Amino acid sequence: MHDIETLVIGAGVIGLACARALALSGREVMVLEQHDLIGSETSARNSEVIHAGIYYPTGSLKARLCVDGKHQLYRFCAENGVGHEHIGKLIVAAHDAQLDELQKIKRKAAENGVTDLVFVNRNELREREPALNCAGALWSPSTGIVDSHGFMLALQGGLEAHGGQVVLNTKVEKIEALPEGGYRVQVETDGAENYAITCRELIVSAGHGAPALMSAFPEANPPKAYLAKGNYFKLQGKAPFSTLIYPVPEPGGLGVHLTLDLQHQARFGPDVEWVESFDYRVDPTRGEKFYAAIRNYWPDLPDASLIPDYSGIRPKIVGPGEPAADFRIDGPEAHGLTGLVALYGIESPGLTSALAIGDEVAGRLS
Q: CATH number for the 89-141+226-316 domain, one of 3.30.1330.10, 3.30.360.10, 3.90.190.20, 3.30.9.10?
C-alpha cells in the first residue's frame, strides 16, 4: 500500500491543472509545494496573456495544446468566475519589408488551426489605433488576458472539491523508485524533520527544478536547465491603445510587446536576458533598449515614461542561440518508468495550455 495514490510535485499553474485533471478522473491526489503559496515562481511572473496558438511549429505540443487550452481556458474562466477579457491583439509590421513575414505568420497560424487572423492595412490601422505607426498588421481576435492568480485559485478549488489537497512549505529533496512499484518522495518542511511519502503515480511538474529531480533516473534522460529572464517595464500614465500590440517575433521570444492587464494598465516586455542564477530585480538601464524597440510601432512614446515593473525567468531546456524547444512531457512511453510523468520546459504558452496539459498528463497515465 502507498501513502497516496497520485502525488504532484509543484503547485504552479501546470501542477494544479494536472492535479485537478487527475482528481476529476477519480484519483486520490496530493500536491506538494515548496513555497508558502501556490504559483509563486514562473506562474506568477508572466504577461497573463491568453495566446491564440499562432507561432508554434505545426504538429508540436505547443501548437496543439495552446489551441486546445485556449478554448478550454475561456470556458473555464466563464464557468468559474475568473477574470478575463477577449481583448485581441495586433501583430504589427513596423515597415514594408516585414509584410511578407505577416503572411508567413498567417499561414502558420492556419496550419495550427487558428483561422481567424485578419490582415489590417495601414489606413485601417490609423482609424483603429491612431497612435500606432506601422505598415500593416494581423488582427488576432481570440487572444485575451486572464487573472492568472484567480485561475490558479479556481484550479485549486476544483482539485479540493474532488478530494485533492495542496500541501505548502514542503520541499521535495529526492525521489526514488520502489522495488514493489511506485515511488518514495523525500521531503523537507519548515520546522519539522524530513520524512518520506510513497505514491503509486508521480507527476514531476517542478518547473525549474524538474531536471534536477529527475536526474535520479538516468533512463529518463532529463534535459539540462537554462534560465532566460524576461524583464517588464510599466508605462506611467494611460496607453493610447485598446488592444495588445506585438511586433513581428524575434529570436528567443516574441519581442518587446505591449500588454494590458484587466485594469488596462500597460506594460512592455519581456525581453530576453540569459542568466545563471535567480534574481528577479529589474535593472532600470535595460529600459533604454525598450524605448527604441517600442518606438518602431509607437513613435510618440514619451521620454522617461517607463519604470521597472517585475521580471520572470523562463524554464528553458535549450541555451542561447539554439532553436526554441517544444514542451517536453515524458510519460512511461518515453522513459519506461510506470506511473511517472515529468514535464520540462513549460514556458509560454504554458499558462494558456494548462488545462490541455492536464488532460495530456492524465492521458499518458491512462
A: 3.30.9.10
